[in-house]
Amino acid sequence: MKKTVKIEGLDCPNCARTLEAEINKIEGVKNAEINFVKGKLSFESEDINALQKIVELSKKIEPNAKIIDSKKKINNKKILTLDLVTLGVGIALGLLALLLPLPVWAFWLMYVLSALSLGYKTYYKAIRLLFKGVINENLLITLSVVGATAIGEYMEGLMVVCLYTIGKILEGLAVNRSRKSIEALTNFQVEYANLITSDGEKQVLPSEVEVGSLILVKSGEKVPLDGVVVEGKSALNMQSLTGESVPVHVEKGCEVLSGAISLDGVLKIQTTKKYEESTVSKIMNLIENASEKKSKTETLISKITRYYTLGVILLALIVWGIVWAVTSDFNVAIYRGLIFLVVSCPCAFAISVPLSYFSGLGNASKKGILIKGSNYLDACAKLNLVAFDKTGTLTTGNFKVVDVKTFEDISKDEAIYLASLGEQYSLHPLAKSIVLENTKPLEKVKNVKEEAGVGVFYTYKKHNYFVGRRAKNTKGTTVELYKDDKLIAEIYLADTIKSTSSEACAELEKLSVKTVLLSGDNFEVANSVGKEIGIKEVKAELLPQDKYAYLENAKKDKKNFIGYVGDGLNDAPSLMLADVGISMGINGSPASIEASDVVLVDDNPKKVATAIKISKFTRKIVWENIILSALVKLTFLLLGALGITGMTWAVFADVGVTLLAIINSMRALRYTPKEEKIKKVKSK
After folding, report:
1. Which of 122, 623, 146, 632 is nearest to 343 (CA)?
2. Less Cβ crowding at N or C end of the chain, within 10 Å?
3. CATH topology classification for 396-497
4. 109-143: per-residue pLDDT in tens?
5. Which residues belong to the active site?
6. What share of the chain is helix, strand, coil (3-state, %, to 5)?
7. What is the CATH number that goes with domain 2-74?
């Protein structure tokens, strides 16, 4: 049984990683994972006491960490207040010890109490973990305080732990703020549904509502399940689903997605999907699982930091040995070795990289782009070729009558009416499009017989009619109308192109990404769509295996990094083969959504370019943090080794660069491509 709980109070990602490793050693517990950025712990266990065992272990290793039920809220203000009080007491005692002329015993009493107040959590964790064979930054700070005290640098010793503790408090505030921002972006969860029953309105859990049920959504409420409006009108806020700030008007017959908010009306909706299959459920599942698949950069940093601290201690010993050999001063050598320990804390690397990626994922989800992991977010930045399916991807999949050709003395409207008499009994999409074109009330006809894949036979006013397709050489999408076996009209239909398809290709071209259209339709239709949209390379009359073969051949060129965008069951193989598979969220088949790496919630192909831009920006942030942290630390390591800077500056360097990296990571959460900013300004 899998369980997820909240866990907060961890000072750093390394601490979280250490605790995670120890939890996995508990008998009966497996696949334990701590998501530091989200502040969540998930694990699998059949033992009913597993959670209690985890809580007890956590108290020993991370006494400040609190594990609670995921539905409860943690009192961060109480934790912060306690930390600030102990910090204030520690500073006050330290100032008294260092500034007042006290007896030796009083000085040491004040000094020890000050050091303990300022860093008791750090020392406790360092000792507990050391006994378990784990060495991390807590030990680095503890050694620095003890070392500084041993060589008589009392002020430096207190400054190290004081600044480190202040830094940790500020880090905690920054991480909590980022968690709240990310939670706000992904706050799709709907708590209840107003189910309409024979006994009246009843409030139930969305998961209890069956397909085909009637639900009521009042002004200010979220739509709990996907469905179709059967009564009422309203403007829906879709921003949390698609990123669009302009409300969408819906009325009878309109499809609505779960997670949208009714702004100014009451809607009666007939549900079309179960809760677990609805848009809001899919989004929540994707977001919850997104962080499980880590990018190569994030994985590399995680692996390095596991062995980093031990390496730092060894290097500090080398620095101490070299300085002692050169200066012959034991105290100076110890002091510079301690500076090396302080500057080398890996927090800036360990926290900023995963936070940057998670911010990028959260930003993408805010804009209606669900990316299933930071590895796929990384991959989007490398795309240089994107292949599109046509129907349902670049086009709406809804056919419209574009022309009618008659061969008898009848008008175009009459031809549509006669065809609609038979098509009204068919469920075929083309039949529905023809009936929608008709403007007159339809009469009932006799002897109706539909032949799958051919058309509808029927009798009207003593004449036998057929509407469907007999000729195999007609161009485009054509429906023929026969009267007593004589062709009297041809009705031409075309799939309507999405309004954003041309913009999508234009944006990709600006990003130097080549676009290709892979269609199962005939050459004339495919080329026409490609020309209108702006895609130069068009491949038509392709079976699913032909699309797969095209991508397979394109991948032979190692320079190509390929994305495939599709929506149907037949697109699933190509979505899996591509370096990045991108599916449609509304009309996409379950198989295509499952096979893809990225899901576009509102089926907008323009979001492909947005995903690439967010990916490139996030990668830029990640490398800015890595390079900044490395440069600052190397600079202060060198200055400290040469005796130019002291331990206080070393702590400033460590804490300062960590905070800068966290703040920089938050930029990925708020990034909006330039074109979208201009669009928002114009819409206002």
Report:
1. 632
2. C
3. Calcium-transporting ATPase, cytoplasmic domain N (3.40.1110)
4. 999 999 999 988 888 888 877 877 777 677 778 88
5. 389
6. 50, 20, 30
7. 3.30.70.100
